[in-house]
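# nightly structure sweep
# worker-07 picked up a monomer target from the shared queue
# config: single-sequence mode, recycle default, output format = structure tokens
# input follows
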Amino acid sequence: MLQTLWKRHGLVMAAGAVCVLVNGQGIGPLWLTGIALLGVGMLMRRAMTRAQRPPRDEAPPVALDAPVEGRWMARNGPATKVPSHTHNLAQTYAIDMARRPAPEPVWLWPVARRPESYPSFGEPVLAPADGRVVAASDGQRDHLSRSSLAGLFYVLAEGFVRSLGLPRHLLGNHLVIDLGDGVHAVFAHLRRGSLKVAVGDRVTAGRPLAECGNSGNSAEPHLHFQLMDGPDITSARGLRFAWHYRDDEGREHRGVPEDNTHFTPVRAAAADRTDPYAAP
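# output follows
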């Protein structure tokens, strides 16, 4: 019951922000009401985040295929820091992945770039194991990148506003797949119109699910991936996972690559494919 209430923290904070912004009387009842609502909303969010912390006696990592093919860079992953993102929305062990090389960030110009400028955009997203689609969203646009200092400030403000709404505003176009045994996989920031599956579909490991995009709370085209112990991202807890992959030195690993390192999934089905972004 309490957790259902905590999910509404965004509405409470949004109401508080409106009270503060429309207030024209200085410090008074409306201003104080707004500040109180903002404070209550932050406490509700904190309570929700604490409830989504994984238990201390966690299960071992779930062995999966990586949900991409070819050479990618790991970012914001659990091999470098836990929580990799935040406990909120079951992101404790989430990881971001992007293709490289990509356009370098700049200070002033261009302020933003089209998502097609990035090699990640349009890349296939694959099922990491057999499962069933339990949630799918495909209607949000792929926005411009935030590739400058002004873009950075914009994405921070945008992220706060998105956090006041439903999780789909942060996730963008996304999929949730039930992998069995209480394990659910989330794929976020997918390309609009690229979903190849629908709710209820059965999928097998390696099947194309969608394409990498730049929807939701995303500064540049990339794939956000995470595991959780239930289908509801607002109440589930994050789960650890392990991939079989190869680094640029040719060494094979089982686990999760560290931030800012390149990896290539080891998968029999992709062994004979050429990769235009492979290391020279």
